[in-house]
Amino acid sequence: MRKLLLIAMLAGLGLTTTAEARDYPVCLRVYQSYHDWYDECSYDTMAQCRMSASGRSADCMTNPWYTAPQQQPTKKKRKHRRQQ
């Protein structure tokens, strides 16, 4: 039973996509070498990102793939007159 649960959890982790990383407006770019880096786009604010980047070979940037949620237009309520 435990093996089945472990397999299900690992399969769930494999289903994550890069599109999920695009839901945050700020990215942390972590440099591993001069030509090698990766981005962690999981921060809501620059302050959060800067705290994570502190003491590391990393830099914060705005997420170029982020699209802010669009507000739905509000529908105007029509007032109905009562007929007498």
Entry summary:
This protein has 84 residues and is of the alpha+beta class. The protein contains three helices and three strands.
Shape: elongated
Main pleated-sheet profile: 3 strands, antiparallel
Mean pLDDT: 79
Number of strands: 3
Helix content: 25-40%
Question: Can you tell me the residue ranges where pLDDT is under 50 for at least 5 consecutive residues?
Answer: 13-19
Quaternary structure type: single chain
Strand order of the main beta sheet, please? Answer: 2-1-3
How widely separated are the two ends?
A: 70 Å
Q: Can you offer a commentary on this structure?
A:
There is one protein chain. By secondary structure, this protein is α+β, with helices and mostly antiparallel strands. The protein has a domain at 17-62. 30% of the residues lie in helices and 25% in strands. The protein contains three helices and three strands. The chain has a three-stranded antiparallel β-sheet, covered by helices on one side. A hairpin with a 2-residue loop joins strand 1 (26-33) and strand 2 (36-43). Mean pLDDT is 79; it is low at 13-19.
Write the layout of secondary structure elements.
Blueprint: H1 2-14, H2 18-21, E1 26-33, E2 36-43, H3 46-53, E3 58-62
Antiparallel strand pairs: 1-2, 1-3
Keywords:
DUF3551; elongated; signal; 3 helices; DUF3551 domain-containing protein; 84 residues
